[in-house]
Amino acid sequence: MKYFFALLVCNFFILNYINAQYYYNDILSLENSHQQQQLFKQNKIRTVKAISKESDGSIIEDFIVEQQINEDATEITTYSKTSAGNKSTLKSTFNQHKISTTISVADGVTTTTNYTYANDGKLLSIESTTIDTFITTASNEQHLWFYANNGKPTKMIKIKNNTDTITVNFVLDENNLVAEEHWYRKGKNIESYFYYYNKQNLLTDIVRYNNRLKKMLPDFMYEYNNNGKLQKMIQVLAGGTNYNTWFYYYNATTGLKEKEECFDKKKQLLGSVEYLYNQ
Predict the structure, then answer these.
(1) Which residue from 212, 218, 226, 211 is spatially nearest to 244, judged by alpha carbons?
(2) How far is CA 171 from CA 101, 180, 219, in A?
(3) What's the CA gap between 143 and 70, in Å, rounded?
């Protein structure tokens, strides 16, 4: 359960990586991080603390996640500690309202990620270097983004350790939104994802083919409130037969997230997280 909460809180404090879809991870999640940074700046937030609770409402005392924001919100540092004594730190640096560098340190592993942008603000590249001091290894990964004349992404090239290359091609729909994402290695299609949107052009579904069930199934489904903020997310778990549902609650004045709850397939509460902000 505590590992579950670690993932839950990291979804709020750090980039919302799904460990898959590159368009979601590199583009949409990055935009969410930029919006979060602007909310901190506008509301003059200096610290954030996550209060994790079990399904019975009891506080998980030995799981700690806190965040410190400097005066102009150009540096945001996240600290976490588990009951097992595991500690991690993530320092994010912003330039012109966009994240420029992150440095993550946890259990002897340091990952430094640099982001570059075009003059119009479009993401050009993400380059990450990971060093494991325990086993003395290092790895590198690059994401190189390419766009059409209308500014929409057409391709991303992922290069790992300067040898392993995956080309990701994007197909746009009639509204110039990314509708399909296809991965290729050595000319062979190895994975495909499909994106669906509502009338407000907000993402509603991320879908892919389930090999076990032999049909298209969603990995994620999203619903939004009247202000366009995410209010519900359904995450389909491995295998496609089980899922969790997340609900999000916001302060009507500041726009900051106040609480999130997670329920299982049987609609039983798994737990919740409340966020406390200080100026």
Answers:
(1) 218
(2) 29, 5, 19
(3) 29
Handedness of CA 49, 40, 20, 79 (dihedral sign): negative
Contact (CB, 8 A) for 170 and 176:
no
Please, what is the end-to-end C-alpha distance for the chain in angstroms? 31
CA distance 259 to 247: 8
> SS3 of 199, please?
coil
CA distance 124 to 68: 28
- Rounded distance between C-alpha atoms, residue 186 and residue 57, angstroms: 51
What residues have CB less than 8 Å from 93, skipping those under 6 apart? 74, 75, 99, 100, 101, 102
Joined tokens for residue 196: 């669906």
Specify the pLDDT at position 55. Answer: 87
**CA–CA dist 32, 23 (Å, integer):** 13
Strand partners, 185: 188
Residues with Cβ within 8 Å of 75's Cβ and at least 6 positions away in sequence, in order, are 69, 91, 92, 93, 94
Structure tokens at 68: 């410190």
The token pair at 16 is 């919302």
87-103 pLDDT, tens digit each? 899 999 999 999 999 99
> Please, which pLDDT band fits residue 239 given cuts at 50, 70 and 90?
low
